[in-house]
Design brief:
The structure holds two protein chains of two kinds.
Chain A lengths: L2 H11 L13 H5 L1 H5 L6 H4 L1 H4 L3 H4 L25 H5 L6 H13 L6 H7 L1 H10 L1 H8 L2 H11 L15 H16 L10 E5 L1 H7 L1 H13 L3 E3 L8 H5 L3 H20 L4 E3 L2 H13 L6 H9 E3 H10 L13 E5 L2 H6 L4 H6 L6 E4 L18 H18 L3 E4 L2 H11 L2 E3 L1 H22 L1
Parallel strand pairs in A: 1-2, 1-3, 3-4, 5-6, 5-7, 7-8
Helix pairs in contact in A: 10-11, 10-14, 14-15, 15-25, 17-19, 18-19
Chain B lengths: L2 E7 L3 H12 L4 E5 L4 H4 L15 H9 L6 H21 L4 E2 L7 E4 L5 E4 L2 E2 H4 L10 E7 L7 H8 L14 E6 L12 H9 L1 H19 L9 E6 L7 H11 L3 E5 L6 H16 L3 E4 L3 E7 L2 E9 L2 E12 L9 E3 L5 E3 L52 E3 L14 H12 L2
Parallel strand pairs in B: 1-2, 1-14, 2-11, 7-8, 7-9, 9-10, 14-17
Antiparallel strand pairs in B: 3-6, 4-5, 12-13, 13-14, 15-16
Helix pairs in contact in B: 1-10, 1-11, 3-4, 4-11, 8-9
Chain lengths: 445, 427
């Protein structure tokens, strides 16, 4: 194999090698939301493809290892929020954001992560403890002096948006529900793949937003689907974002093992978090380099809920009996949704709801980027990145907004005070509006 | 699968023009583009035609229309209406142009100290292409620390009479450099970062004052206001608030300012992109950037859907028509391999091109350019791609812009071809 062939082959599957396609045209720098608001980050081109040539020793395939392994020449890569705007705008197909995430991980490899960064990646631990000590935890997170203390000691910004822990985990609520159903109806067998879908709920639903799960289950029930909720762990994205790849891989393998069993039997795996779902669809393979059969079969079976519903609609199978929702609804498409490459399925679904005036805010990033905006040194950047979005949401005068990713919802709601919901909650409200209209009609007769 | 009446692949000038024309006729339009390129790499102007010897764009257009195989052979009548129409749309978005098809092609200075023949320019660049009268000086004003614009080198080069190609030229070119506020911490200062700072009202008040002081110093000797002379600045005068910024600067300076477009990323090009995109969204169109076409679905000779690569699968948009605005070799619409095969990337259309031995001129900087530049897709008069026998391959696919066969860079006709073909394809 010639070097050229080696390089070409590597470029097809390795993020780092896409740097070879970079023309240095600077388009990525023009779309970077972080570079737009701070001088601390020189822009994705400089820390990405431009710096990549100095790191090539790390990305060469196994055959060519032995070349010098050089440290990242530019440590400002840590200011990258990972939003992915650069990758989308690149005319040459360079995976800039992915490159930056991998360089951050390499920069941090072999060192103990900052306690704060490690902690932000421990969504299951934080969630479990928080739910267990719910009243105290919720009180503490809303308490100014304690938040100040967290700010100083751990570096979690005192004003960063945090949701309230829910009463018990969604996993335990689901198990109780299954037991109740078994007792009532004696059903023990899982419904088959034609009649049910598997739900990857992610941490936000498990510990903070069970109402999103309820909405999704109700919307799917309306369309003839039951839901199976298998045991699962955090998808690992918060760990990937904080450069802790080793632990993220362990999460990935756990989830893949569980989900592959379902995927192989023909189940679709759905999620309400566009970020967790993108992690399973793309990042397990692309970022964590897991290229086994499990990763592929699971990725192929995994769908974002709105993507799935729109696909049902395309087949003429979606119940479009939505009732009127006469309201303004500013919608923000999260960065992670853009990385799915599926357009804006939520907007297409909103168009089916009579009276609903949904409007795409058309802003690049809300700023939070998962855990980025929660960090004391990055909070100001995150708020500045999202500022035009917050202004538009406020100016809309709407009482509700919609967004597919949880941390973006918390960010928008925290900054604007406007209740921000998952699209599936809006769709459920539209179904209920139809029910209410039917009931009123029946009462009149 | 969302549906559209028209899918346009590519978000450069030709793609967005086609999308706008389709949206204007009431169609539901989706633009799918791999990234930003054409607009962000260009000068933000609309070059119609400037083959050597032409005195005006109209003369150039007529000359090119007579060249067999040139895109203008079929489109020359479409250029003026398309230009007027797109200028109306851009003006409504706050982006105005000066000059017409009958304005003289003048040598306007460039940011590497050369000149280029132009007639139609964004308002902020227009003063660069006006004929020079006796006694007029050119002050090239740079920004300290900004590596994409070297006023001393530009002034030195523009001081050589030969650069102006025998046309009128300033009586003396001088350079000044201005320290703008708060830039010391920035290591990689780009035009976009400077433009964003100009968007900030408080910052630019200070910046404009500093520019004015420097220009007044350099212009000393001439009575202010009567100002024989002009000031060339790098094209950094704002992205979102550009018209107001240019107006403030023009009113404050003793001499007339104009912008010189820079190496990418081009701020004037981004303004053009933003204006076109905003106009399209206002008309209900959608723009998706970051989408690679995976395949196109057909029913016989009819394109029925376009599938883009998505995470773990493809994402499909059903469509009534397809417009390819993917650019030529530079834009990525055509790729070449080492063996001399050229491939059109979306539909695999036959590419018309010179034989591989004749792709390139021996001199890399040959003023005639390289024969390969003319590579592209041959179409019928309705811009439908045709096979070797001249028969349309698809009934509802059109090709626009630089992907069309027959254009050459030396003709400076890319923008005119883009708007004329874009508008025509959507009809």
């Amino acid at each position: 194999m010639t070097i050229a062939e080696l390089v070409r082959e590597a470029a097809l599957e390795q993020v780092g090698y896409s740097a070879d396609e970079c023309l240095k045209c600077n388009v990525c720098n023009t779309v970077c939301p972080v570079a737009r608001v701070t001088d601390l980050f020189p822009g994705p081109k400089y820390v990405g493809p431009q710096a990549a040539r100095f790191r090539m020793g790390h990305t060469l395939p196994a055959q060519a290892k032995g070349l010098p392994r050089l440290a990242s020449p530019d440590r400002t890569v840590d200011w990258c929020s990972g939003c992915g705007c650069c990758t989308a705008a690149c005319p040459a197909g360079v995976k800039v954001a992915e490159m930056n995430s991998q360089s951050r991980a390499r920069m941090k490899a072999g060192k103990l992560p900052k306690l704060r960064d490690w902690g932000l990646g421990q969504t299951d631990l934080v969630g479990t403890v928080g739910v267990l000590f719910r009243p105290i935890a919720n009180w503490a997170l809303a308490n100014r002096p304690i938040r100040r203390l967290l700010h100083i000691t751990f570096g979690i910004h005192h004003s960063a948006p945090f949701p309230k822990f829910s009463r018990g985990t969604y996993q335990s609520a689901w198990k109780r529900r299954q037991k109740r159903l078994q007792k009532q109806f004696g059903i023990t067998a899982e419904p088959g793949p034609g009649a049910a879908v598997v739900y990857f709920h992610g941490c936000s639903v498990n510990y903070y937003e069970p109402e999103v799960a309820e909405a999704m289950i109700a919307v799917l029930a309306r369309n003839g689907y039951e839901v199976i909720v298998p045991p699962q762990v955090c998808c690992g994205l918060p760990l990937i974002s904080n450069g802790i790849y080793g632990e993220a891989r362990a999460h990935a393998h756990k989830n893949l093992e569980i989900l592959a069993g379902y995927a192989r039997r023909g189940y679709k795996i759905l999620g309400t978090s566009s970020s967790c779902i993108h992690t399973i669809k793309a990042e397990y393979r692309e970022m964590l380099d897991i290229h086994d059969d499990e990763a592929t079969v699971v990725a192929n079976a995994t769908w974002d809920i709105c993507e799935f519903l729109l696909d049902l609609h395309d087949q003429g199978k979606l119940d479009t009996g939505f009732g009127p929702l006469p309201q303004d609804l500013p919608y923000h498409a999260p960065c992670q949704l853009r990385s799915h490459g599926i357009g804006l399925p939520a907007m297409d679904l909103f168009a089916l709801v009579p009276g609903l005036r949904a409007r795409d805010i058309d802003h690049d990033c809300c700023g939070i980027a998962g855990t980025y905006g929660m960090k004391k040194e990055k909070y100001g950047i995150a708020m500045a990145v999202g500022a035009p979005l917050f202004e538009k949401v406020r100016a809309s005068g709407a009482t509700e907004a919609a967004c597919d990713s949880e941390t973006c919802r918390w960010q928008i709601q925290g900054a604007t005070g406007v209740r921000t919901r998952h699209p599936v909650e809006i769709l459920l409200a539209a179904y209920r509006a139809a029910d209410a209209a039917d009931a009123a009609e029946a009462a009149r007769r | 699968m969302p549906g559209a009446d028209v899918v346009v692949v590519g978000a450069g000038l030709s793609g967005l023009t086609a999308a706008l024309a389709a949206a204007d006729s009431g169609a539901r339009v989706q633009v799918l583009a791999r990234g930003n390129a054409g607009t962000h790499w260009g000068s933000g102007g609309i070059d119609i035609a400037a083959p050597s010897g032409a005195a005006t764009p109209r003369a150039g257009l007529e000359a090119l229309a007579a060249v067999p195989g040139h895109p203008y052979a079929a489109l020359s009548g479409e250029v003026e209406p398309a230009l007027n129409w797109i200028r109306g749309i851009l003006a409504a978005e706050g982006l105005t142009f000066e000059g017409t098809l009958d304005s003289p092609l003048q040598p306007a200075p460039t940011s590497i100290g050369g000149t280029r023949p132009v007639a139609i320019l964004p308002t902020a660049q227009a003063a660069g292409a006006r004929p020079w009268v006796s006694g007029e000086r050119l002050i090239v004003c740079g920004v300290a620390g900004f590596k994409d614009f070297w006023p001393d080198a530009i002034a030195a080069s523009l001081s050589r009479p030969g650069v102006w190609g025998g046309g009128s030229r300033p009586d003396g070119v001088v350079a000044v450099s201005v320290e703008l506020p708060g830039l010391a911490a920035r290591h990689n200062l780009s035009a976009v970062e400077l433009a964003r700072r100009f968007d900030d009202k408080a910052w630019r008040a200070d910046a404009i004052e500093r520019i004015a002081t420097a220009v007044e110093g350099a212009a000393a000797g001439h009575a202010p206001g009567q100002g024989p002379g002009r000031v060339a600045l790098p094209a950094i005068l704002g992205l979102n608030d550009h018209p107001a910024i240019f107006d403030e600067l023009r009113r404050r300076l003793p001499l007339e300012p104009f912008e010189l477009p820079l190496v990418p990323p081009s701020v004037p090009g981004m303004r053009l992109y933003f204006a076109l995109r905003a106009a399209l969204i206002r008309r209900g169109g959608r723009v998706r950037i970051g989408e690679m076409i995976d395949h196109v679905e057909c029913d016989g000779a009819r394109v029925t859907a376009v599938a883009t690569a998505a995470a773990a699968r493809t994402s499909t948009v059903r469509t009534g028509a397809l417009i390819l605005a993917t650019g030529g070799i530079a834009g990525g619409g055509i790729v070449a391999d080492d063996a001399g095969h050229l491939e059109e990337v979306v539909l695999g259309l036959p590419v018309e091109a010179p034989p591989v031995e004749a792709w390139l001129s021996a001199d890399a900087f040959d003023p005639e350019g390289h024969p390969l530049e003319s590579a592209g897709i041959r179409t019928d008069a309705d811009l439908r791609p045709v096979d070797r026998s001249g028969k349309p391959i698809y009934s509802n696919a059109r090709v626009v812009g630089s992907l069309l066969a027959g254009g050459r860079l030396r003709d400076r006709c890319r923008d005119g071809v883009a708007v004329a073909s874009g508008r025509r394809a959507a009809r």
